[in-house]
Design goal:
The complex is a heterodimer of chains A (115) and B (116).
Chain A lengths: L4 E3 L2 E4 L5 E6 L6 E7 L6 E7 L2 E5 L7 E4 L6 E5 L8 E8 L1 E2 L2 E2 L2 E2 L3 E5 L1
Parallel strand pairs in A: 2-13
Antiparallel strand pairs in A: 1-3, 3-8, 4-5, 4-9, 5-6, 7-8, 9-12, 9-13, 10-11
Chain B lengths: L2 E3 L4 E5 L4 E3 L2 E3 L6 E7 L6 E7 L7 E2 L2 E6 L4 E6 L8 E8 L8 E3 L3 E6 L1
Parallel strand pairs in B: 2-12
Antiparallel strand pairs in B: 1-4, 3-9, 5-6, 5-10, 7-8, 8-9, 10-11, 10-12
The chains are: A mainly beta (115), B mainly beta (116).
Amino acid sequence: DTGVSQDPRHKITKRGQNVTFRCDPISEHNRLYWYRQTLGQGPEFLTYFQNEAQLEKSRLLSDRFSAERPKGSFSTLEIQRTEQGDSAMYLCASTVEVGPTDTQYFGPGTRLTVL
Amino acid sequence: AQTVTQSQPEMSVQEAETVTLSCTYDTSESDYYLFWYKQPPSRQMILVIRQEAYKQQNATENRFSVNFQKAAKSFSLKISDSQLGDAAMYFCAYRSPVSGTYKYIFGTGTRLKVLA
């Protein structure tokens, strides 16, 4: 297993279009996180899953955002009716509990540009 | 709500020298986890080091060590014998240990430049 992968790596879209990103975590990892990172900022938490259950969702995540993790494997993040403010890097991370805490393994990210 | 603050947007260090990156955080919890992550240019973020708040001993990983001051809510990262490959964005992060709450909170990052 080579790590967390994300697809696509880059996405350019026009305002108002819908986009969907995919994250494939490390196979034995049961927790999966989505973050948004804008230029010069740290990752901002969006949501996370424990297996297939979405356990927490940030207030940053408007109704236009939805995430799924069917069968507790890969996850998708969909943004409907994109806005220019959605332009950012979207990061996925997966973890497995080892000892007292877990360690996050990040994917390369999907860079979204909304024109 | 917990917050993480990195007050140094950018730092520079001469190759082979030592540099310290600062991080402060705010929380009302007595137990938690702290992390330093490294994000090289156009590459994936990776864990550098982590510290459990209940441990008094500062964590070390090869050339990387932390100075954890719980009372001051300070968590600085020291990089010894800096190498060109250490050039990256460094993020400090906090995680609550409360069962069912696994959200990580990141600081805004410090860009480290290593001068040859």
